[in-house]
Write a structure and sequence with these properties.
Blueprint: H1 3-8, E1 9-11, E2 23-29, H2 32-42, H3 47-50, H4 52-56, H5 67-80, E3 88-96, E4 105-116, E5 121-129, E6 135-144, E7 151-153, H6 166-174, E8 183-188, H7 193-204, E9 208-214, H8 216-225, E10 234-237, H9 241-254, E11 259-262, H10 267-274, E12 287-293, E13 301-304, H11 314-330, E14 337-341, H12 352-365, E15 373-378, H13 380-384, H14 386-391, E16 404-406, H15 410-423, E17 427-433, E18 439-440, H16 448-468
Parallel strand pairs: 8-9, 8-11, 9-10, 11-18, 13-16, 14-15, 14-16
Antiparallel strand pairs: 1-7, 2-4, 3-6, 4-5, 5-6, 12-13, 12-17, 17-18
Amino acid sequence: MSTTELLEYIENKTFDEIAVGDTATLVRTLRPDDIQMFAIMSGDMNPTHVDPEYARSSSFREVVAHGMWGGVLISNVLGTQFPGPGTVYVDQSLHFERAVRVGDTLTVMVTCRRKFDHNKHILFDCLCTNQDGLKVIHGNAEVLAPTEKIRRPKMAMPELRLSETKKARYEHLLDITAGLCAIPMGVAHPCDAESLKGALLARDRGLILPTLIGPADKIRSLAEQHGLDLHDCKIINVAHSHAAAETAVELARSGEVEALMKGSLHTDELMSEVVSKTGLRTERRISHVFIMDVPTYPRPLLITDAAINVAPTLEEKLDIVQNAIDLALMLHIQEPKVAILAAVETVNPKMQSTLDAAALCKMADRGQIRGGVLDGPLAFDNAISVAAARTKGIRSPVAGQADILLVPDIESGNMLAKQLEYLADALGAGIVLGTRVPIVLTSRADSAQTRTASTAVAVVIAHAKRKLKITQPS
């Protein structure tokens, strides 16, 4: 039988084909993912196996595999090769001699010790040794052996991936502020639980010095109701949400705060003050960026504009993409790759998004857009999948490895961001750019953690403005 056939088929040994003394082996090295997957499948969350901090204080001094991980390898040999398909477990007895640590390589050997003709049972000796030849597990297994020959194609199993928990990814996002001091931030109308919690959580993480702007009695009552501590918070009492938006913008214009956060008021209510004649406009078009951590994508993904500009023109897209590139550079993404999205990857005169994409790429060639590498039009699959791009014969420095996705309009962008959040378990942060100060702009449905993650981005921008002494005229 060829190697290819061995890989593609699974075949058993029948009772009559097995002789006393016959053996089969399997070699497997323990990976961290093996421990985590076993814990998830079994529900065994013993901290000896899954909690590194606890494990350091245990007798093993480090995380070790569940004992039955090695037992499962024995089952693997019996069920897939010796005897293989058709085998039925009858009895198993195992003794565990020593722990298996990450990086240990186990050699599993099962040996036919005795056969019982009257019931077709076979008794096997089972032995697992590590890379040093030391005994890890030993025992025996009794099985009902198959009597008919079975040879079947191997079933294609789905790939099992382990991604970091959302909490771990959230912590990584907050790491972008390492070494940066807290900035003064105005929080406009934090009059629901999540918006107030978001501001206070950002305070507790050392990100901001919050100024809470809204009805003072309502804010204090909300804090008391939810057991929240308002220490180190300045409260500016205003009557309603519109006044809160107006006051927040005034504080930003005067330099009393270096960033703003939207509370429980509507986006239009805050942004109408931001874009007013006495607001926070600059020479740039105001735009929004979602910074998404998607478990199935190997790098942060910036999506723009999914919240401010409804149907941007080519001129407006120029500012939108430049804002996103500038942010990517602040986040230490070197020479960010920008995919200009459309429904197709070819220029079609009947589709304005493809014409805009081609024009933006040429503008980048002429130095009208700086700091990034642009390509488009690109369909979404070509933008994020190297395989999809290759299948369609697309040769591009951006295809399959985009850092920034420039969407055609607010509808496509908003749906894309929400799909990633709710169907792909993406962690998102939202920020408004092109204004005198960064503005944390999230949905009223977003959690306190999402608001805090967005605040971390605002802190990075505020410090970049300090460092580079960026001045943006009104």
